[in-house]
Amino acid sequence: MEFRRMMDTTRRNLLAIVGIGTGMALTGTAVSADSEEDRTEEQARGSERVNDHIEEVIDRLATEEKVSLLHQYQPSIPSVDLDSFRTGTEALHGVAWLGEATVFPQAIGLGSTWDPGLIERVGSAVGDEVRGKHNASSGTVGLNVWSPTVDPLRDPRWGRNEEGYSEDPLLSGAIATAYTDGLTGDDPNYLKTAPVLKHFIGYNNETDRTTTNAEIPPRLLHDYYLPFFRPPIEAGNAVGVMASYNLLNGRPMTVSPFLNRYVRDWAPDGGSVLNVSDAWAPMNLTEAQDYFESKEKARASALTAGLDSFTEHGSDSSTTTEALLGALDAGYLDEADLDEAVGHVLRVRALLGEFLPPSEDPYADLTADVIGRPAHRELARETARKQTVLLKNDPEVLPISEDDSVAVLGPLSDRLFEDWYSGTMPYRNTPEDGVRDRIGAEQVHTAVGADRIALRERDSGKYVTAGVGKGGGVLGLSDTDAPNVQLFETVQWTETAWTLRATANDRYVTVDGDQLINSSERPAGWEVVQEAFEFVDVDDGVVLRHPSSDRYVAITDGSLHATAEQRSDATRFVRDVRHDGIETAIETASDVDVAVVVVGTHPLMGGRETRDRETLAIAPSQRELLARVADAQSQTVLVIESSYPVRVEEEKRLPSILWTSHAGQETGRAVADVLVGDISPGGRLPQTWPRSVEQLPDITEYNIAETGMTYRYGQANPLYAFGHGLSYSSFEYDDLRVSPRGPLESGATATISVRVTNTGSMAADEVVQFYTTRHQSGTTHPDRVLRGFDRVHLAPGESTTVECAIDHEAFSVWDVTRRKRIVERASHSVLVGAASDDIRLRGSLRVNGERIPPRDLSEETRAVDADDWSWSEVELLDRSRMDGTVVGMTDGSWISFADVDLRHKPTEATVSVARSEPTSTTIELRHGSRSGRLFGRTDVPSTGDVYEYTELSIPVSGMTGNRQDLCLVVRGGTVRVNTIRLE
Predict the structure, then answer these.
(1) Is 37 inside a domain boundary?
(2) CA–CA gap between residue 723 and residue 720 (Å, rounded)
(3) Which residue in 585, 827, 841, 866 has a CA-CA distance of 20 to 30 Å to 761?
(4) Structural contact between residues 119 and 106, judged by C-beta atoms closer than 8 angstroms
(5) A Gene Ontology molecular-function term (predicted)?
(6) Is 374 part of any domain?
């Protein structure tokens, strides 16, 4: 459970910088003091000097120069000795987009290790390589890294699922804190890199991502969504957040006051927080989101909300600077607003050592030699091993004997792919390579299981012919049947997406301009990959559609072009199967002891950034391959390689199933290590795997308590539960102890301990998981909550005691009645086991706290703090463009307040509302439900604008008693309900 939060606040405040050097540069030395008191005093003086220096720099900057520092690309300013600076190096699981670098498993794989100590080492290696590239490029590679992504994995259809760590905030927070701990380095005074967390907050869908309104009620916001972001910032590791594209409760996150209200409040030093926009997001404020009428008002609102850096128009900062200068002229901003944001930027740059002489840079020795160093390659292999999850092993086919003959089959058996935020792998060890290297080439038999086809034009009978050589050539037609240049290996990745790899040069067919060329080393491209094609059946053959260009393939001047807008204009082809991939795979599998079938998803097709999945199933041809191999070979092992949970229809028929993320350059060796039992798999699922897409709500439904999503809210009958993962060994849990025996008091810590024994015959890892579930409560609460975990390694027969410490405050929940965190007096069941659905021991714990009192509606109460509502009929919206949340209500919708104290017998209710429509609308106050006894009603006039509020006085009668439920019902048109008060 314990993970190091070593980045103390001294470094965040630059407390070790002790003087101003020549000109505008600072000289830094390590602080030495004879006592902690002297050290603290010296650090405070150092911090003050740094702040004085930054203020001096700001004072010397012209207004235009200040504004220039608020864009992603910041120019050099020689007059104050500022170098150019760029925010945003991608480093999600290795350095991305900057050439070769060590590629570690995808973030979802890092999460499945449940091993923060390991992930800290991964983060450190990635940080070293960022610094190495920075130093080798004379600073053009930036040190502000936009990593990690900590959005909750609440829905497995999210296109960017592979970028997150978990559906649980505790696990995600531990992994994210460890990764950023490594990224920031171990120097007590300066940062190796400056991580920014993605994407704050309420971002889990790609479809309409810039206009989706993520409706998150206050309790879920505080108890679920915010805790994913808080730990790395509170630990002093992450220096800020990237504001997400979406709207949250009606307001774009680019202008959310939460950037200041929470992010800076969490940070040990809020002045050292650098919040950035997502790419092009500032433009959405006046375009797709249509939230502001002018770019000046939009940029000013973002800046005052807490955004410090605008990411738009690439390196061209003119739109940003012109808008901010215009906002100054219009009075939307003043110079102090600029100074504050510039101060945030400069403090983070100072933390990165910008004001140090090069000779004193603690990371100057990190040169290009660190990139891909042997230690990083071994760490990549270790991480890829530890993230594998054994989903099933009954009967036990795994581990495979070294003496077995093995067929390694499937479209992912002989290739590795990079995702959008991956670096370029310096080498690729595939599953086929790994097994062959491990047990010997003579025992390994292979088949991709994909058809090789020839395409013949229906009318002329000519064959599509590819070019030879690495550059390939434009696909054309030939009269001669020449298989060496006319065969294409076809692999299906989704229901509609296929790739064609030319056997002429082992390159993929892509589209350049509009010409089809066999020149691509691997599928790639933004939104829809250029190498994806769809075979569309027609009566007399097939036509090819190119989804990326939304064009069909037609023959022009003897060559293939993606130019036809209509299917009727496309060229008809006959697809001749020259080599039946599945039949070959069956023959190969039938002649060996064990078949290993590697199937899954392509990280750039199906689900990815800009595209959510509609299904959980793997591609039909892959399912057919798996089913038919399993029919022919009872000893079949399924290896799933995917970026997210998938649905395997054949799951019940297969004895053994192993999951891995797209795990980078060492995937093959790592998979082989597990298959042959060099190590026992110890990864655990960091998110629930549903049985089918039918179990899932609309992907834009963010109220997971209402929809029952994630293990916390009882996702029904999953295929594999949160925390699931099997082992080649077995473990016994006993001697559960929970202290204190009496109630846990404020300021105290509960300790749960359990003895775990390896009762099997193989050394293995076990991930011990501690959950609690709360009994009766004054609020709705999760079914169970992960409270701690520990991954332990035990030899056969070895025992260890695992402890979980839980602070009293960890039991706090958000009390909507008083808008604060409170710890309720309650009894909790303690659940200890190997997964959320594999509980081995149970205990109990009493937590002392307070009771939530009856609601006092004599004080003004926000409608959004209601206890219940007709969720599908209401919408959470913005009270104003700057702050606040209201409830948008329509005809028949309702909100209710539970346990209201009506003993003072109120005679009047005051409701604050806004509505722009002139139609007739009525508000009713009723007892218990929308059809309950009527207390009072009033008509709602138009206020002329949705942001113009008026207070309605409603005479009421019959309100009396304690702990009564009060229901507010709307009849007629639409209205925004802001507050209610009883008098």
Answers:
(1) yes
(2) 9
(3) 841
(4) no
(5) carbohydrate binding
(6) no
